Amino acid sequence: MISLKGCHFPKDAVLYAVYFYLRYTASYRDLEEIMAERGVWVDHATHNRWVVKYSPLIAVRAQSKKRPTLNSRRMDETYVRVRGRWMYLYRAVDKAGVTLDFMLSERRNRPAAAKFFAKALSSNGFPRKIVINKSGANAAGIREINKILNRFGYPAII
């Protein structure tokens, strides 16, 4: 349960405001107007403090409620433009095509691939099998992760 101890507003109003800000492209001033229409008069600076304070707690709670994933995963990368700069988008999807995790990186190399694999495994657990493309960076990254897993007694994945 998310604790709002010390907050002077109803829990439902605070969580609604944080959810609305994170889910939709509304500014803090727009959110101030939306909440005023619902009878809660809060300054836009207070909304900012709520988002900064409570959004990490909501993210941790949502991560713990995530349903288990299938035994097989596909991991790949692609080249995308983000704010005018070309970046690599690493992503992991399960057998049904549901995106499990993603990461943006400026480089396509072994450290970037290993960082992504470690991030994906820590947040989604260990699959029975990982399918990757023939990228040298992905192969080197998964070999590095397998070395770490072998040190702790886990079987190699791929």
UniProtKB/TrEMBL annotation:
An annotated GO BP: DNA recombination
Keyword DNA-binding tagged: yes
Keywords on record: DNA recombination, DNA-binding, Transposition
Residue span(s) of domain DDE: 72-147
Tagged with keyword DNA-binding: yes
GO MF annotation terms: DNA binding
Entries under Pfam families matching the protein: DDE_Tnp_IS240
InterPro entries from the UniProt entry: DDE_dom, IS_Transposase, Transpos_IS6
Top-level taxon: Bacteria
Official protein name in the record: Putative transposase
Taxonomic classification: Bacteria, Pseudomonadati, Pseudomonadota, Alphaproteobacteria, Rhodobacterales
